[in-house]
Write a structure and sequence with these properties.
Blueprint lengths: L2 H4 L10 H19 L6 H11 L6 H12 L4 H22 L9 E2 L2 E2 L1 H5 L1 H22 L5 H15 L4 H11 L7 H27 L3 H28 L2 H4 L5 H4 L5 H5 L1 H17 L9 H12 L3
Antiparallel strand pairs: 1-2
Helix pairs in contact: 2-5, 3-7, 4-5, 4-10, 5-7, 5-10, 8-10, 9-10, 10-11, 11-15, 15-16
Bound molecules: farnesyl diphosphate and magnesium ion.
Length: 307
């Protein structure tokens, strides 16, 4: 191993992200399948499981597991939280797709929850997943000091509520149809709507694995940068990708006359900004050596992805 590789500058070249993601996503998939049994009243559990097990990259749980391992923890310590993060992500998408919000028919290549189970059950499935996520962390996390678990629950609660996802979604809905949305407002929307949960994935992994305050802050900055880059790439894909590639409707932002990064900056500048954010994110991982390969490769994957 050369010293350059140790600094992480070229480390991702020797790292097989596709195999890593496949292997970790399979672990998460199995844990998610076990997390919600089908019991009475079956209809609500079926609806919760329908969206939770509809596939997806499982990027959020994988980020949580990878960060926990990076700081010296184990996959087992972080798996209940990793599952809970996917439950919360899923519930936010079920509600986002409802007629009262984005009114979408397809998600992850399948009919949306309300299209299959009706709006009433879809709302309740989202509520059920949100409540269960917190129960699941508190009940299932083993081998971790209770104080760390409490910190994770508090951090996640804030990331999901009006100070995070909910707040970002509200400003997003308010901005729809407006042509004069500023870059500051756009950044606020995405730092909250997408960034807050991605940040919580990384920070909760760090907390569970026993990271100190300074380390948590560095990893938090890594996550905030990849979160914003993720959204910029999402906006670009909405213009450049096909519905088949996305597994959901494409061209929606244009149709809804949404202000997006490409609409403010153009596609080329948006790509450049995303690449800069990824470089900034990776700079926060200096010093971990090859242990940081998964988080570095995930950062690179965000700009390279096609869906
Ligand atoms: C997708 O955005 C939506 C989100 C990332 C989150 C939306 C948040 C809520 C509905 C709040 C949920 C409530 C709680 C308590 C967490 P998008 O519409 O830009 O992307 P899409 O094209 O994938 O739908
Ligand atoms: Mg939507």
């Amino acid at each position: 191993m050369t010293s350059l590789q140790n600094q992480g500058a070229v480390a991702t070249e020797t790292f097989d992200l596709a195999s890593y993601l496949t292997e970790r996503a399979a672990l998460v998939e199995a844990a998610l399948d076990r997390s919600i049994p089908l019991v009475y009243p079956e209809k609500i559990y079926e609806s919760m499981r329908y969206s939770l097990l509809a596939g997806g990259k499982r990027l959020r749980p994988v980020l949580c597991l990878a960060t926990c391992e990076l700081v010296g923890g184990t996959i087992e310590m972080a798996m209940p939280t990793a599952c809970a993060l996917e439950m919360i992500h899923t519930m936010s998408l079920i509600h986002d797709d409802l007629p009262a919000m984005d009114n979408d028919d397809y998600r992850r290549g399948k009919l949306t929850n309300h299209k299959v189970y009706g709006e009433d059950i879809a709302i309740l499935a989202g509520d059920g997943l949100l409540a269960y996520a917190f129960e699941y962390i508190a009940r299932e996390t083993k081998g971790v000091p209770a104080e760390r678990v409490l910190q994770v629950i508090a951090h996640l609660g804030r990331a999901v509520g009006a100070a995070g996802l909910v707040g970002g979604q509200v400003v997003d809905l308010e901005s729809e149809g407006k042509s004069d949305v500023s870059i500051e407002t756009l950044n606020f929307i995405h730092r909250h709507k997408t960034g807050a949960l991605l940040e919580a994935c990384v920070v909760s992994g760090a907390v569970l694995g026993g990271a100190g305050e300074e380390e948590r802050q560095r990893l938090s900055r890594y996550a905030q940068n990849i979160g914003l880059a993720f959204q910029i790439v999402d906006d670009i894909l909405d213009i450049t990708a096909t519905p088949e590639e996305l597994g959901k409707t494409a061209g929606k932002d244009l149709q809804a006359q949404k202000v997006t990064y490409p609409s403010l900056w153009g596609i080329e500048e948006s790509r450049r900004q995303a690449a800069q954010l990824i470089a900034d994110a990776k700079a926060e991982l200096q010093g971990y050596g090859t242990a940081a390969q998964p988080l570095q490769a995930i950062a690179d994957f965000i700009t390279a992805r096609k869906n």
